[in-house]
Design a protein that fits this description.
This protein has 198 residues and is α/β, with parallel strands linked by helices. The protein has seven helices and six strands, in the order βαβαβααβααβαβ. The chain has helices at 30-37, 52-61, 89-97, 110-123, 135-146, 150-153, 180-186; strands spanning 2-7, 46-48, 66-67, 128-133, 163-168, 191-195. Strands 3-2-4-1-5-6 form a six-stranded mixed sheet. β2 (46-48), α2 and β3 form a beta-alpha-beta unit. It is globular and about 50 Å long. The two termini are 19 Å apart. The model is unreliable at 172-176 and 179-187 (pLDDT under 50).
Length: 198
């Protein structure tokens, strides 16, 4: 399967504010959609996060995209909407010490994010799909299918409105969807990155 991973337009939000699942507006998606259409094969289905900042671009790319909550950005819980410089320094240090498993108060960990995102991608059918989503989601997808450690995938730079193409192996589909551990034993994650951040 070819995955076209598209990051939403720039949010209309002051710099330095924590926004994971905080639902904020974004810049006009039309100029981005015009550019991205030329990079997507005709008829590519679009699946998107239901956030406002992704919804506008998804609808500009396809009249009726499908929305999936598993493609939402990481949930920062009580940190959402707060300036980063007002978040408890001890908690930020704890997060830096365990990037994969640290859970912000009331939120979710990077491991939890990656699990739901992988579940979403594994449920997709067809030869290709465009996902209009968030930087954290795209990083989690790339980390899983490229076999990257969290210290690498969590730091990948992704521009607003960028597109990244990943081709993934789908041999795992032969086993029932609820048996993820068995599928991974039979066919470990494998992907080929064709381009990043175009």
């Amino acid at each position: 399967m070819q995955l076209f991973l598209i990051r939403h337009p720039r949010p209309l939000l002051a710099a330095g504010i924590c926004y994971g699942q905080l639902d904020v507006e974004a810049a006009d998606p039309q100029p981005l959609a015009e550019r991205l259409r030329g990079l997507l094969p005709a008829g590519t289905p679009v699946v998107a996060s239901p956030s406002r900042r992704t919804r506008g671009l998804a609808e500009a790319l396809q009249r009726r995209p499908r929305f999936d909550r598993r493609l939402l950005e990481i949930d920062f819980g009580e940190w959402e909407g707060r300036p980063w410089d007002q978040v408890d320094r001890r908690l930020l240090d704890a997060w830096a010490a365990d990037v994969l498993h640290f859970v912000p108060p009331g939120g979710e960990s990077a491991a939890m994010l990656q699990a739901r995102v992988v579940d979403c991608v594994e449920s997709l059918r067809g030869p290709r799909c465009a996902l209009v989503t968030h930087a954290g989601v795209i990083r989690a997808v790339l980390g899983h299918w490229l076999g990257l450690p969290v210290g690498e995938w969590s730091r990948l730079t992704l521009d607003f409105g960028s597109i990244t193409r990943l081709e993934i192996e789908r041999a795992q589909d032969e086993l029932p969807s609820g048996r993820r551990e068995e599928r991974q034993r039979h066919s470990p994650a494998a992907g080929v990155l064709h381009y990043l951040n175009r």
